[in-house]
Amino acid sequence: VLVYYRTNRIILNSASTYDDDEYEINQLNAYRRSFNRGINDFVDFFVWFRVEEDYENEIRLRQDNNYRNPKLEAIRKAIENFLEGFPNTHFSDLRVVRKQSQKNIDFTRNPSPLSLIITKNDQDFNLEQLSEGEKTLLMLVTDLARRLAIANPGLGVDALQGEGIVLIDEIDLHLHPQWQRIVIPSFTRTFPNCHFIVTTHSPQVLSQVKRENVFILEDYKLVEVTPHTYGKDSNSILYELMAVNARPKEIQEKIDACFNLIDEEKLAEAKVKLQELADLLGEDDTEIIRAKTLINFLTE
């Protein structure tokens, strides 16, 4: 497969009212809207999942109560594999639910609105109720798994081993820093034969990528030498790759001024500066502790 996920990754309510009359099983659907903005509205996944789940439920009702649609099993397995490393987060049982009117049930051409429901930590949620980060990840994982299942019919869960080139703009979008550090390994583990080309400004993402896989663009040109990134702390990556200091400039200047006073043994003035910094940064800041230690040493 070949697919490009843009930055405006959201799930639109329009998916629940989409008319699927024109839906057909076709391997070319693996590339449908793979490079336009429509990829981000979740409609194609919703319609596909709805049709496949209807088929699964029909077989379970009429023939085999234990039947599981192999295509949907690929989606379920992708969610399970991808999120297994995420702390305190367990998603399962993605399904379509129809909202029935309390007054009557209408079996006409216009059914009640449908919703995608998922169980998170043993509690059911409409996908629209999830955080932006959760929705973003689920959209990426389920849509990519769907495309691989369509492109590799008959393989079931093994469709996740399919090949592809996946472009993701700002892969860290809406993600908690802890999740940013996990997202790249989770993608490569879940889709081992896909090549991922992603953009990011996140030091947490970069800390999980080896130098040979990192390319820096500056003024639309490729920077020749890339510093090491894998396993490095966030401050080092920010400074070495993006020329961002660990602290705001005005705070660093105050810290430098305090240590200059200590070097000159103007300890009374240094204590005043140090207290001002402690009020801003807290008593447990590493530079506050270091300055206090030096002052105590010099006054003994």
Automatic annotation (TrEMBL):
Q: Which Gene Ontology MF annotations are present?
A: ATP binding; ATP hydrolysis activity
Record-linked SUPFAM superfamilies = P-loop containing nucleoside triphosphate hydrolases
Gene3D superfamilies the record matches = P-loop containing nucleotide triphosphate hydrolases (3.40.50.300)
What InterPro entries does the record tag this protein with? Answer: ATPase_AAA_core, Bact_Antivir_Def_Nuclease, P-loop_NTPase
Cited Pfam families? AAA_21
The ATPase AAA-type core domain, residue ranges? 22-207
Tell me the superkingdom of the source. Answer: Bacteria
Which protein is depicted?
A: AAA family ATPase
Q: Which organism does this record belong to?
A: Limnofasciculus baicalensis BBK-W-15
